[in-house]
Amino acid sequence: MRRPIEIQAEERAMETIVSLTSAFESLSSMSIAQTKRKVLISKGFFNEVWNIYKQIRMDVMFNFGRTSDEKPINKELLILITAPGGLSGDIDQRLIKKFRAYYQGKDDEYDIIVIGRHGAQQLSQAKIKYKYYFDLPKKDFINVDPLMNEIRKYKSSRVFYQSYVSLGEQSIEDLDLGEVVNQMGRIADLDTVDDEKITERNYIFEPSPYTVAAHMETSILRLTLTQFIYDSRLAQTASRFRAMTAAKQRSLETALDLRTQFRRAKRAQVDTRLKESLAGLKKLRMEQNDV
After folding, report:
1. Which CATH class is domain 25-244?
2. What is the pLDDT of residues 65-83, one digit of tens each?
3. 12, 138, 224, 282: most buried, per Cβ within 10 A?
């Protein structure tokens, strides 16, 4: 049987783990509330910008802010939004698995951009080369301009990201960026159906409607990418909350089990010493009787 002092040391180590997981759980809970508010604000702003853009757009296709003389690269750009590190459950593993099923090693058809250090590490381990890597923004301000500059160069772009469904469920999504912008625009149309019409009759567009439409496309793309990052951050935080809650529960159960083992080992140690004392006392009495 293990010594009580060894079991007690292990129990104290497990109690430290319980404290740490509780702290991470609390931090994740606070971060979830803050990020959800930012997602709602971003969606509201997108609706306002889309209402202006849909009335001045010159083309039924979303052109990502490209001018008419820009010729895009005939490849699909794959963008992976992953966590900045570990302690976020299995959400990044699920995303990489879905990406690899789509990618299938076709380097000549796709270029890859990774956002988040954890995803870059997993791609490197799988020996999959990516073109660029960006850190996942930690602060409220998210600068997506370097990413937008790359998206504009390609004929099409697809985003793999984690989506927040609920605190207990996070899904993995892969969406064509052009299609999702139009889909978000259709949703925005339902909220702005009675708004004032914006046309060349009642507004002046300088230097031209084409230039203004391209600028609006850039703004819409920026908002869309920002929403993807906020949604991913929200899903990652929820996944971390789940992982920390499960880890805390397992640590508590292990700590309770170790406490029970410690008490049994302590009682067994006392019983052994008592038996040894009684045996010694009995032997002493027998020796005295023989004398």
Report:
1. alpha beta
2. 666 677 888 999 999 999 8
3. 224
